[in-house]
Design a protein that fits this description.
Strand order of the largest sheet: 1-2-3-4-5-6-7-10
Helix content: 40-55%
Number of helices: 11
Largest sheet: 8 strands, parallel, barrel
Structural class: alpha/beta
Order of helices and strands: EHEHHEHEHEHEHHEEHEHEH
Distance between the termini: 15 Å
């Protein structure tokens, strides 16, 4: 039976105990902790947890008291950034391997990272077109000189510890779709799978069902997150550089489940996941800025619970 969890950043304004209480009250069973990088890590301190057995025991105790388990640790950041960000996020990724072992967690959610477009560049460069022609040279340099060297070493380190790396296919990352994911997996092996998040695929114009069918057994973890394509997209298309707030005037927005893809669409997603062999945690990642966090998470949880029951034939 599929289970429902929450990336605790969704209740980032609450202290840890109150956050876990709220998750338990909603009837969820799993949590996913952000440890740094693009997460503010509002609930756990990775340095403290690595250094102190007492801190780990306290966290485990708080979870056990509420019948909660950790589905994954999340260290999403950019370990391939050419500056200090890359150094810091790379260290975070390796530290997360160590913490996962200490906490008995098997899955790590992260992104592939995005390097610069050349040796002298100071900022990451996302190549999204084969034109102008130098774009292809830049892309090949990124993969051969930055992406694969990092990932071969990192995947090997994770494999030695028996961990699964769940790469989220995300815009402005080297791995942002199935094609780029399989390029990485073919090079580094099955330690690397996917954290399947439909929301990013949707705003890039893809179809979650087709992607699930293509990824199959490579799906190691799932985020419950939705996107809504707005009317503005008819005028400007789906590329949108405006900030996520305010939501008005954007071409697309992250929304709670059922507010972008209809509920029956989520039922199709759940059915496709089951058919692909995934019968595990769906971790709600709330970035709906149009409603209060509790309302948004409750909406997503209600949608997921209904779809899980219907997909299992429960009336």
């Amino acid at each position: 039976m599929m289970k429902i969890g929450l990336n605790t950043d969704g209740f980032g304004a609450l202290p840890l105990a109150a956050c876990l209480d709220q998750i338990a009250e909603l009837g969820l069973t799993h949590v996913e902790f952000g440890l740094g990088g693009w997460s503010g890590a509002p609930h756990v301190d990775i340095a403290d947890l690595l250094a102190h057995t007492s801190s780990r025991d306290r966290l485990k105790g708080m979870l056990k008291e509420r019948n909660l388990q950790i589905s994954a640790l999340n260290c999403s950041g950019n370990p391939l950034h050419p500056g200090k960000i890359g150094v810091d996020d790379s260290k975070l990724a390796y530290d997360t391997l160590e913490l996962a072992v200490l906490l008995g967690v098997e899955r790590i959610v992260m992104m592939s990272g995005l390097p610069a477009g050349g040796v002298e560049d100071r900022n990451p460069n996302w190549i999204t077109s084969s034109w102008p022609l130098e774009a292809m040279e830049m892309l090949e340099w990124q993969w051969s000189e930055r992406v694969l060297p990092f990932w071969r070493k990192f995947a090997a380190a994770a494999a030695e510890k028996g961990l699964k790396i769940c790469v989220e296919q995300h815009g402005r990352q080297c791995v942002y779709n199935s094609e780029s994911f399989f390029r990485l997996r073919d090079a580094v092996g099955p330690t690397v799978g996917v954290n399947f998040d439909p929301s990013h695929l949707i705003w890039m114009g893809g179809d979650p069902i087709s992607a699930i069918e293509a990824l199959g057994e490579c799906i190691y973890h799932v985020h419950g997150k939705d996107s809504r394509i707005e009317l503005r997209a008819r005028i400007d298309g789906l590329l949108d550089t405006k900030h996520v707030m305010p939501v008005e005037g954007r071409s697309w927005n992250f929304v709670s489940l059922g507010h972008g893809t209809a509920v029956h669409g989520w039922l199709d997603i759940i059915r496709a996941l089951r058919k692909a062999g995934y019968d595990d945690v769906i971790s709600i990642e709330n970035e709906d800025y149009s409603m209060p966090p509790l309302e948004a998470v409750t909406t997503s949880a209600t949608t997921l619970r209904f779809c899980i029951e219907q997909s299992a034939g429960v009336k």
